[in-house]
Structures are given as C-alpha cells and as structure tokens.
Task: inverse folding
C-alpha cells in the first residue's frame, strides 16, 4: 500500500519546500500540483482543452513561477472542468510505491482524502509576502496584495476551495525557519509511519 502525504495551504506558506524535503527524506515521489494549474493558465486559449491536453513540455516552461503565472493559475483553477481534467493524473501519481507527497490546495480534501498524513501549512500573510518577494526579487507590498487576492479567490471558489481537511494537522510556519518546519513535518510523518 503506497504511503500518501497531502500538503495543502495558501500561497508561499512553505508547503512546497516542506513537500520536497519530505519526499527526499523518505524516498517518496513528489508532485507540485500548482505547476499543473500554472501550466494550464500559461497555455492560454480554452483552459479546459489546455488541461485535457497538458503535456510534459507544458510543465517544463521557464515562466511558470512568476506572480503573473500564479494569478492566471488561480483563475483557471476555479473552473470545475479544469480541475476534473487534472484529477486522474494526480491520483495516479499519488498511488506510486513506495509513497508520494503532493502539495496544493485540495489534496487532503479532494484528490487524496485517504492520505496517511495531511498537513495544512499556514503562515502570517506578511511573512509569506516577504518570503515570496525575496524569492522572486519583487516588492513586498505588491506581493502581499497579490497573495491576498489569490488566497481570497482560492478560498472563495465553489470548486474544491482552499481549506484544511477535517483531519489535517495545521503547521504554522510564521515563526519557523525552513529547517525547523521541515524537522517538525518529518517528526509528524515518522510518527505516522510507525
Ligand atoms: O501552489 P501554487 O502557488 O503554484 O498554485 C498556483 C495556483 O494554482 C493557486 O493559487 C491555486 O489557485 C491553484 N491550485 C489549486 N489546486 C491545487 C494547486 C494549485 O487550485 N491543488
């Protein structure tokens, strides 16, 4: 039985870094599901057709990490048919042995409701904006406005809104550096592995 770890949370909460570190630590596969929505948004045209025909080349584009790509992703991610077109791929990815870590917004609630570990990673939005601004070399206030707009859209949509699963553990990284956050996540997963 593959071991699945679901990591959700708002933009720039640290979930991607934690997911990558957990996968490396435990030898699991890792999927950054935000990249799928970023690639659909960046492709342009009909988003449902873009999601249905998503290719490895689409995911390898160099411009997917920008704030503009994040906003475009958040707009197409509100379309239920787009989400539906990406569901099977994510579930197949999650079923790989010996295990997989998926990070996104709806992994614990919709994609992998039976995941062995569910983490919901949060942090104060000013701290998240400062982290993302440093990463992208962008202005903190502009990043803060961008994150707030994106979080509000992601949490307010009807299709798979951003929210913690009822059985998710909330990890607040506001006052943690990345090593401390990863150490805490490793401790939680190790306890679940038994
Ligand atoms: O995680 P990342 O910032 O790359 O995600 C970009 C956007 O993709 C999010 O703001 C959200 O709208 C969407 N997304 C989603 N469900 C996921 C992952 C990302 O709706 N599982």
Result:
């Amino acid at each position: 039985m593959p071991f699945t770890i679901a990591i959700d949370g708002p933009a720039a909460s640290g979930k991607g870094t934690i997911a990558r570190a957990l996968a490396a630590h435990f030898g699991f596969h890792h999927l950054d599901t935000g990249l799928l929505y970023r690639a659909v948004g960046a492709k342009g045209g009909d988003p449902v057709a873009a999601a249905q025909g998503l290719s490895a080349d689409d995911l390898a584009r160099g411009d997917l990490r920008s704030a503009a790509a994040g906003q475009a992703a958040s707009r197409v991610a509100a379309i239920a048919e787009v989400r539906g077109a990406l569901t099977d791929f994510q579930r197949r990815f999650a079923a790989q042995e010996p295990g997989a870590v998926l990070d996104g917004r709806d992994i614990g609630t919709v994609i992998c409701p039976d995941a062995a570990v569910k983490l919901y990673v949060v942090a104060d939005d000013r701290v998240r904006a400062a982290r993302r601004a440093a990463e992208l070399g962008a202005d903190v206030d502009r990043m803060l406005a961008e994150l707030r707009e994106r979080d509000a859209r992601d949490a307010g949509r009807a299709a798979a809104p951003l929210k913690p699963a009822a059985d998710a553990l909330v990890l607040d990284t506001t006052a943690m550096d990345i090593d401390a956050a990863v150490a805490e996540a490793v401790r939680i997963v190790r306890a679940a592995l038994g």
Notes: The chain has a mean pLDDT of 96. The longest strand covers residues 3-8. Residues 21 and 92 are 21 Å apart (CA to CA). The pocket of cytidine-5'-monophosphate is lined by residues 11, 33-34, 37-38, 70, 73-74, 77, 104-107, 150, 154 (CB under 6 Å).
